[in-house]
């Protein structure tokens, strides 16, 4: 497989690479910058051909992620970018702001929008400047926390063609964190030990303080982030925001997911039952990263190298193609 890398310092020109160069490559990775001040480095992966191509913007889950959303031994965003490019769809992925500028993690003015939403909007704006991209077919794919925010992003960019939610929470994240802590504690030996009890109690007490409007130090709150940040997260109602937008949505979920579970999946289904613009795809053997996993599931699997399921990538590509037929683009 031939991968061509081309560096572009500032923005994308009308044609980032000659058509004949694209014709001999399976795909092409182009370095881009997202935003002007404190910009973020990213990669635009283009399929073979002259375009214009539909494009998917990838939005990270929680944590300070790189453009590949590297988790343990795995790089799910790179897998999705390469897989979709081989199916004729461009993908833009970029460094998360808190990964590129880690000082923000101690900034008590940090909010979920500053961390995630605003940069996704900048990424969409960057794509509108690119002739290689079909501007009528820009899609947003959010993973985990990014999926929770994808409807908000689409609401603020109403010309986005559709939204893809991969392992997206449907319930408040502060509640999920405590639930996840309890579940992971039980996975090891069926017992929540003393250290796990302490961690769980801190999560519950932190959530209570945040919702009471108190200002405990960030060191006592989840992930060491400020109360202001967590209040901005707690204000996100992903289901309500998804109902408020008009774009088509594709929801993807794995049956081996330990972090976003059936309670979230069922809430999404109940909210959009018989809603023609919403499509659901459930894969029994996929984990939180969209990778096949045997057995009941474990966080240790993140340390085992794997690849995002080809079937999941097919789901995304087929849905995008079907929308083209529906809208005549």
TrEMBL record:
GO terms for molecular function: hydrolase activity. It comes from the Bacteria. Its EC number is 3.4.-.-. Keywords: Hydrolase. Pfam families: Abhydrolase_6 (PF12697). It is an enzyme of class 3 (hydrolase). InterPro entries: AB_hydrolase_1, AB_hydrolase_Est10, AB_hydrolase_fold, Pept_S9_AS. This is Alpha/beta hydrolase family protein. It comes from Lysobacter brunescens.
């Amino acid at each position: 497989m031939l991968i061509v890398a081309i560096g572009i310092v500032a923005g994308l020109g009308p044609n980032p690479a000659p058509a004949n160069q694209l014709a001999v490559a399976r795909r092409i990775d182009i370095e881009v910058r997202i935003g002007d001040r404190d910009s973020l480095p990213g990669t635009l992966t283009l399929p073979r051909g002259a375009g214009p191509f539909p494009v998917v913007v990838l939005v990270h889950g929680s944590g300070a992620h790189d453009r590949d959303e590297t988790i343990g031994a795995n790089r799910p965003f790179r897998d999705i970018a390469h897989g979709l490019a081989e199916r004729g769809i461009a993908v833009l992925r970029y460094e998360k702001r808190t990964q590129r500028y880690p000082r923000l993690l101690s900034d008590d003015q940090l909010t979920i929008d500053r961390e995630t939403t605003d940069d996704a909007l900048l990424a969409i704006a960057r794509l509108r400047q690119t002739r290689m991209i079909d501007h009528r077919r820009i899609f947003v794919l959010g993973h985990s926390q990014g999926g929770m925010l994808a409807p908000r992003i689409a609401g603020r960019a109403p010309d986005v063609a559709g939204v893809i939610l991969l392992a997206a929470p449907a319930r408040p994240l502060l509640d999920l964190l405590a639930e996840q802590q309890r579940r992971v504690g039980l996975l090891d030996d069926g017992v929540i030990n003393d250290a796990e009890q302490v961690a769980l109690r801190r999560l519950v007490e932190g959530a209570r303080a945040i919702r009471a409007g108190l200002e405990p130090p960030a060191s006592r709150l989840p992930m060491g982030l400020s109360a202001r940040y967590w209040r901005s997260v707690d204000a996100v109602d992903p289901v309500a925001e998804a109902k408020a937008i008009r774009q088509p949505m594709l929801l993807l979920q794995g049956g081996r997911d330990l972090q976003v579970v059936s309670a979230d999946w069922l809430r999404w289904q109940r909210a959009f039952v018989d809603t023609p613009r919403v499509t659901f795809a459930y894969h029994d053997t996929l984990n939180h990263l969209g990778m096949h996993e045997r057995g009941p599931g474990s966080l240790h699997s993140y340390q085992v190298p794997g690849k995002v399921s080809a079937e999941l990538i097919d789901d995304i590509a087929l849905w995008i193609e079907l929308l083209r037929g529906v809208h005549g683009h």
